[in-house]
Design the sequence.
DNA sequence: TTTGTTAATTTTGTATACAATAATTTAAAA
DNA sequence: TTTTAAATTATTGTATACAAAATTAACAAA
C-alpha cells in the first residue's frame, strides 16, 4: 500500500532522492536545479528541498544550482586529496586490520574476479571502504565520504571500461596489508589510485 | 547611522555572526543553540538562522544543537588529517612558491618575533595560509578551511601560552621552502603540527 | 544584425503560521 | 520518597505567502 517511511524527516529523504537522481543520471551534468520544480516532483514544499540542495552543494554535487560537471582539474585535485588520505589509511590497515576484516577484504578481491558489473562495482567500493575505516579516524572517514558521490560518478567509467590490472592491484594491496607492510600498502594504494585517475581521464 | 550592509544575504551574515560568537566565546562550549533565540537576537527570522546553523554543523562547530566541545580524540583526528594535507602543501610550496609569497612568509616569521599577541595570532595563521594556498588545490584548501574554525579555537591556547620554539619551527620551515627542499619542508611541517598538538593537549 | 534598456518572468531569499516531535513539568500511584 | 504517565511547554520541521534579486524576453536605437 501507500506506506511511507515516516521515520526520517523530509529534508533527509529528499536529499537521498535527489542525490540518487544525480548519481543515476536522471539529473545529468549541467542540469539546472530549481527548488520549486524538485519540490513539486517530490510532493513536498521548497523548505526541505532547499536544505537538501545545500547539502548537495556541500558535497560538490551541485554547483551554482547546476548538477556538477567536474573538469579534469577538479578530478585531479580530488584525487590528490584522496591519495593522501587513503594512502595513509592503507598504512593504518596494515597495522590494525583484524582477522575478519582482512577476510572481507579478500572476498572483495575474489568476487571482483568473477562477479557481474554491479557486483564488481559494489565490492570495489567496499574494498576501499574497509581500508578507510581502518584509519579509525572519523574526521578522515567523513571527508572521504563526502567525496564519494563524485568518485562514484567517476568510478563507473573505470569499471564499465574494465580497466586492466585493477583487481590485481587490489590483490597486491591486500597482500601488503595482510603481511603487515604498511609502507608498501601505502605506496601501492597511492599508485593504484593514480592509475585509476589516469585511466579514466584518458577515456574522457 | 543605522546603515546595514545589504550586499550579502541574511543567512550568510548570520552565519558569520554566530561563528564569531562561538570563536570569541560569547557562545561557549556546550551551549544549547536554539533557532528562535538566535533569530531574535539577530533580528531576523528562523529561516536564515537555520541555514547558518546547518553550515556550522557542517564545519563541526555545532554538534547536536550545542556548541562543540572537542575531545582530545577529536583534536588528534583533526590534526592527523591536517598533518597529511599541510605536510603535502609544504612540499608543494618548496617547488612552486613565488618570490613575493616567499617574502610574505618571511615577514610572518619576523612579525611573530616582536608583535603583539593579536599580531602573532594573525601572522601565524597567515603563515599556514600561504603554504596551504601553494598546494594550488581548491579541494584541499576547502577542507583545511573547514577545519580552521576548530583549529582557531585551539590555537589560541598555544599562542597565549607562548609555546617555545613555535616561531623557530616556522623559520626552519621557511628556510626549507626557500631552499626548495620539499622533502625537508614536509617533514618539518608535520613535526611542527604534531608538536603544536601535543603541547596544547598537554595543557588541557 | 548588434547593442542596450525596460519590462516581464522566473527563481531565490525571508517571514510567518502551523504541525510534529522532543523535552520538561506536573501530578498520581506505588 | 520514587516512579510512571499524562499534560504542558519548548523546539524543530514543513508549508505557504510575499519580497528581493536574478534571469529572460521584448523591443528600440545604433
Sequence:
Amino acid at each position: 500500500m501507500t506506506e511511507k517511511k515516516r521515520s526520517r524527516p523530509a529534508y533527509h529523504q529528499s536529499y537521498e532522492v535527489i542525490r540518487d537522481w544525480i548519481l543515476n543520471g536522471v539529473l545529468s551534468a549541467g542540469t539546472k536545479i530549481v527548488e520549486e520544480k524538485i519540490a513539486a516532483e517530490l510532493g513536498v514544499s521548497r523548505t526541505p528541498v532547499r536544505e537538501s540542495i545545500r547539502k548537495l552543494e556541500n558535497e560538490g554535487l551541485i554547483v551554482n544550482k547546476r548538477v556538477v560537471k567536474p573538469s579534469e582539474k577538479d578530478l585531479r585535485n580530488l584525487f590528490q586529496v584522496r591519495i593522501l588520505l587513503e594512502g595513509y589509511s592503507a598504512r593504518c590497515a596494515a597495522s590494525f586490520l583484524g582477522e575478519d576484516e582482512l577476510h572481507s577484504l579478500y572476498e572483495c578481491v575474489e568476487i571482483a574476479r568473477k562477479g557481474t558489473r554491479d557486483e564488481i562495482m559494489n565490492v570495489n567500493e567496499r574494498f576501499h571502504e574497509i581500508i578507510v575505516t581502518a584509519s579509525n579516524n572519523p574526521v578522515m572517514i567523513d571527508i572521504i565520504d563526502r567525496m564519494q558521490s563524485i568518485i562514484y560518478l567517476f568510478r563507473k567509467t573505470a569499471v564499465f571500461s574494465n580497466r586492466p590490472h585493477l583487481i590485481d592491484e587490489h590483490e597486491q594491496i591486500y597482500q601488503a596489508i595482510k603481511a603487515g607492510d604498511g609502507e608498501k600498502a601505502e605506496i601501492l594504494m597511492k599508485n593504484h589510485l593514480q592509475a585509476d585517475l589516469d585511466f579514466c581521464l584518458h577515456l574522457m
Notes: DSSP finds nine helices and two strands in chain A. Residues 1-6 of chain A have pLDDT under 50 and may be disordered.
